[in-house]
Amino acid sequence: MKPAAVQEFFRRLSAANPEPRSELDYVNPYTLLVAVVLSAQATDIGVNRATGPLFQIVTTPQQMVALGEEGLRQYIKTIGLFNTKAKNVIRLSELLIERHGGEVPRDRDALEQLPGVGRKTANVVLNVAFGEETIAVDTHIFRVGNRTGLAPGKTPDAVEAKLLKAVPKLYRRHAHHWLILHGRYVCKARKPECPVCPVADLCAFKDKIIA
Question: Is the pTM of this model over 0.70?
Answer without folding.
Answer: yes
